[in-house]
Specification:
InterPro entries: Ac_transferase_dom_sf, Acyl_transferase_dom, Acyl_Trfase/lysoPLipase, PKS_NRPS_Biosynth_Enz
Protein name: Malonyl-CoA:ACP transacylase (MAT) domain-containing protein
Strand order of the largest sheet: 5-4-3-6-7-8
CATH superfamily: Malonyl-Coenzyme A Acyl Carrier Protein, domain 2
Keywords: Multifunctional enzyme, Transferase
CATH architecture: 3-Layer(aba) Sandwich
Number of strands: 8
CATH class: Alpha Beta
Shape: globular
Pfam families: Acyl_transf_1 (PF00698)
Strand content: 5-15%
Helix content: 40-55%
Structural class: alpha/beta
Number of domains: 1
Number of helices: 12
GO biological process, one term: fatty acid biosynthetic process
Length: 268
């Protein structure tokens, strides 16, 4: 894809850069909504998307997700985000809302990568699951992680939880990715294995350097991380041949991403 004073997939100007763009869906610390308040207040698309996703996830949770994400630091409600049963849904909700905001501006990736709790948001972005299916999967896992045992003592063990999660995934109807989706388990592009429930329940070691190297070999030169932090893009200089010069990271300054020249470009 040529990109000299061109637009990123028809939406965002990127000055003097060539190559493909990857969105990275990370598994950072659970997001608190207060830290995204400006994003919510400034962009109705983001606010509407986040409200929609939280409402879809609420039936699986003990408390409304938006209430937990927006709770004041230091409160018992805010502390719930330290639990996997709330952290996973919160990361998913934020990432998908960010993705839908970017999509509304015509900012789209050429490839996507999801790590750990970011895997399901990446799968949604790649078209593997509908939003309803992805929310059902994320919500079911949250309920299994946070609720009392539903099938005897064995259901509380990690293998019991994953078995139950796999049974839920088997009821979904995944499709082949419409965008190249890089797997954090194999660090290879995902294909027909999206139809296998066990693919989505596998735990993976942190192999981002391998994933970044493959994306770079596939022509990715522009990177944008979605989620609560920038832990993956900060690693790029140590992962890519050429070091910092090879990592053209898009700043998550949302006003610049919407309309600024150079697409909010910055070094990592």
């Amino acid at each position: 894809m040529r990109r000299t004073r061109a637009c990123l997939n028809g939406g965002m100007p990127v000055d003097g850069r060539t190559g493909r763009t990857a969105f990275l869906f990370s598994a950072g610390a659970a997001p608190r909504l207060g830290k995204s308040r400006e994003l919510r207040d400034s962009f109705p698309v983001f606010a509407d998307a986040l409200d929609d996703i939280c409402a879809r996830l609420d039936p699986y949770l003990e408390l409304p997700l938006e209430r937990v994400m927006s709770a004041d630091d230091g409160t018992r409600t805010a502390a719930l985000l330290d639990r996997e049963s709330f952290a996973g849904p919160a990361v998913f909700a934020l990432q998908v809302a960010q993705y839908r905001l970017l999509h509304s501006w015509g900012v789209r990736p050429d490839m996507v990568f999801g790590q750990a709790s970011g895997r399901m948001a990446a799968a949604y972005a790649a078209g593997v699951f509908s939003l309803a299916e992805a929310c059902h999967a994320v919500g079911t896992l949250a309920r299994l992680l946070g609720g009392p045992p539903a099938a005897g003592p064995s259901s509380a063990r990690p293998d019991g939880i994953l078995d139950a999660y796999g049974r839920t995934l088997a009821t979904l109807h995944p499709r082949a990715p419409r965008l190249p989706l890089l797997c954090d388990v194999t660090t290879r592009p995902v294909g027909a294995e999206t139809a296998e429930p066990e693919f989505w329940v596998r735990r993976a070691p942190l192999r981002f350097a391998e994933a970044a190297g493959l994306l770079h070999r596939e022509g990715v030169r522009t990177w944008l991380e979605l989620g609560p932090g920038d832990g993956l893009t900060r690693q790029l200089p140590d992962c890519l041949p050429g070091g910092p010069a090879a990592a053209f990271v898009l700043s998550r300054d949302w006003a610049l991403l919407r309309s600024g020249p150079n697409g909010g470009a910055q070094g990592p």
